[in-house]
């Protein structure tokens, strides 16, 4: 007979039902009240430091006490990233059906790293890679991996490029990477992690539309070749984080091919706009890339922890990641499906594919396309309306990020725009963020969440109008 105290983790059916019912009720209450919740709650000073209420020891609590603690100490303070009024930092929102996928994945605890252990899980994830690669225009011979996000995906892509181009300690100091200051900082982190910190990084200037200057890029590559350097990698954005702009992918691809340079595209934010007609036109040339990353937790609306890396030639991906171990000798490949464990550094791997597959299977890809088209429309609408209020605009949005700032007749523009964003964030009913563009403090609205609709955008426009009117724009 089981010792009840010893086997606490093996709940009875009744105990599971009680825990599940109360947790589901908690989740339903959160979702039902979401439109009434703030998009941002400034954390109290006591919350910023380590909270003693969250300490782990032998003191226990019942599920009601735990859920109340979660609501007060975890869900309430900071950003409400599930809110449609959250228009900062490229939010995705976290669709409900993905949570069901995560629940099933966690309950079944399928090991998704090796085909031998879970052929169904690996086949599902490989199907998601096939579907995404097809969106990008890749044909047979590609490979990919579902990752925890864009940073890890960039890491895998750059490691694969390094191995494919035989970059090592003997030639790294003459190796050149080309990108712009609009590249995501995870690129620099990946460069450092994979041992390329001693290579030469050329930051190519951007044009008035905040895109890489392709003429300058080619001139710089030619000059580097003349002085005996090794042009290795060029990185382009397909939806930059700051402004959502798309570099001239087709032209960059031609330059990279001409000089045998690995071409990497960071499409973490913009990649899934390939599902729309407008997105495909804007992203023309993406299939020329040797590697691409996309984040389903951005423009496919999944919960955080969802990224994808695609490599045009799977042989390079395998060469950069495949290792063997005696204890894994039973887990041989079947010849038809590659295991994720040989396509990335990850071995113990969460079955994260289910959170992406389930909603796509449940609703079909056309449902996601419609939401993305709505975001493109809303960005166009916001761009037009915020100009009418009197804001100075950045380039017309390629996708659904809009950058803008107010230039008062008197006073410091940067100070005033800092005041605007602070007022919005202190209010908390809607959230936007800021960045620096060409040395100027700039506001940005990232209209990406599936819960962001015209109501939320109009609320933001109304707040902006009130702020600049009430302050007389003389700061």
Write out key terms for the chains shown.
475 residues, seven-stranded mixed sheet, single chain, alpha/beta, four-stranded antiparallel sheet, 42% helix
Helix-strand blueprint:
Blueprint: H1 13-32, E1 40-41, H2 45-48, H3 63-75, E2 78-79, H4 96-108, H5 119-136, E3 143-147, H6 150-164, E4 175-179, H7 185-193, E5 200-203, H8 214-226, E6 230-237, H9 249-258, E7 262-266, H10 277-282, E8 291-294, H11 296-299, E9 307-311, H12 314-321, H13 354-363, H14 365-389, E10 392-393, E11 401-405, H15 413-427, E12 433-437, E13 440-446, H16 454-470
Parallel strand pairs: 4-5, 4-6, 6-7, 7-8
Antiparallel strand pairs: 1-2, 3-9, 8-9, 10-11, 11-13, 12-13
Notes on the protein architecture:
By secondary structure, this protein is α/β, with parallel strands linked by helices. The protein is 42% helix and 12% strand. It has helices at 13-32, 45-48, 63-75, 96-108, 119-136, 150-164, 185-193, 214-226, 249-258, 277-282, 296-299, 314-321, 354-363, 365-389, 413-427, 454-470; strands at residues 40-41, 78-79, 143-147, 175-179, 200-203, 230-237, 262-266, 291-294, 307-311, 392-393, 401-405, 433-437, 440-446. The longest helix has 25 residues, at 365-389. The model has no long low-confidence stretch (mean pLDDT 92).
What is the mean predicted local confidence, pLDDT? 92
Strand order of the largest sheet: 3-9-8-7-6-4-5
Q: Total helix count?
A: 16
Kindly state the percentage of residues in helix.
40-55%
Portion in beta strands: 5-15%
Given as residue ranges, the uncertain stretches (5+ residues, pLDDT < 50) are none
How many strands?
Answer: 13
What structural class do the secondary elements suggest? alpha/beta
Basic shape: globular
User: What composes the largest sheet?
Assistant: 7 strands, mixed
Radius of gyration over alpha carbons?
24 Å
List the secondary-structure elements in sequence, H or E.
HEHHEHHEHEHEHEHEHEHEHHHEEHEEH
N-C termini distance: 75 Å
């Amino acid at each position: 007979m089981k010792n009840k105290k010893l086997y606490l983790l093996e709940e009875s059916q009744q105990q599971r039902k009680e825990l599940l019912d109360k947790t589901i009720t908690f989740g339903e209450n959160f979702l039902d009240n979401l439109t009434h919740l703030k998009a941002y709650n400034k954390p109290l000073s006591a919350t910023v430091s380590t909270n003693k209420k969250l300490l782990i020891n032998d003191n226990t609590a019942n599920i009601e006490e735990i859920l109340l603690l979660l609501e007060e100490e975890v869900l309430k303070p900071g950003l409400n990233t599930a809110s449609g009024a959250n228009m900062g930092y490229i939010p995705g929102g976290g669709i409900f059906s993905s949570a069901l996928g995560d629940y099933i994945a966690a309950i079944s605890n399928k090991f998704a790293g090796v085909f031998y252990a879970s052929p169904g899980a690996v086949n599902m994830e490989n199907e998601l890679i096939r579907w995404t690669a097809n969106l990008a225009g890749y044909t047979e011979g590609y490979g990919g991996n579902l990752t925890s996000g864009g940073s890890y995906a960039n890491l895998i892509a750059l490691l694969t490029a390094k191995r494919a181009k035989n970059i090592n300690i003997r030639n790294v100091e003459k190796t050149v990477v080309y990108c712009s200051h609009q590249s995501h900082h995870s690129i620099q982190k990946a460069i450092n992690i994979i041992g390329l910190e001693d290579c030469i990084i050329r930051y190519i200037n951007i044009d008035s539309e905040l895109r890489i200057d392709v003429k300058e890029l080619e001139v710089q590559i030619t000059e580097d070749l003349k002085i005996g350097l090794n042009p290795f990698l060029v990185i382009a954005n397909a939806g930059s984080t700051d402004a959502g702009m798309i570099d001239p992918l087709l032209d960059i691809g031609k330059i990279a091919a001409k000089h045998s340079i690995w071409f990497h595209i960071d499409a973490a934010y913009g990649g899934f706009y390939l599902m729309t007609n407008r997105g495909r036109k804007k992203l023309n040339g993406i299939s020329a890339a040797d590697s691409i990353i996309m984040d389903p937790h951005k423009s496919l609306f999944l919960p955080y922890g969802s990224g994808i890396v695609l490599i045009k030639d799977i042989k390079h991906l395998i060469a950069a990641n495949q290792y063997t171990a005696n204890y894994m000798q039973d887990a041989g490949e079947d010849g038809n499906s590659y295991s994720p464990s040989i396509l990335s550094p990850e071995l113990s791997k969460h079955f994260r594919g289910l959170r992406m597959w389930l909603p796509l299977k449940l609703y079909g890809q056309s449902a996601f396309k419609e939401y993305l088209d709505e975001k493109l429309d809303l960005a166009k609408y916001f761009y037009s309306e915020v100009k009418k209020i009197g804001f100075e605009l950045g380039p017309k949005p390629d996708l659904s990020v809009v950058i803008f700032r107010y230039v008062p007749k008197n006073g410091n523009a940067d100070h005033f725009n800092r005041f605007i964003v602070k007022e919005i964030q202190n209010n908390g009913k809607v959230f936007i963020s800021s960045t620096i563009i060409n040395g100027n403090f700039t506001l940005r609205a990232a209209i990406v969440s599936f819960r962001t609709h015209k109501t939320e955008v109009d609320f933001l426009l109304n707040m902006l109008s009130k702020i600049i009117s009430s302050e007389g724009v003389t700061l």
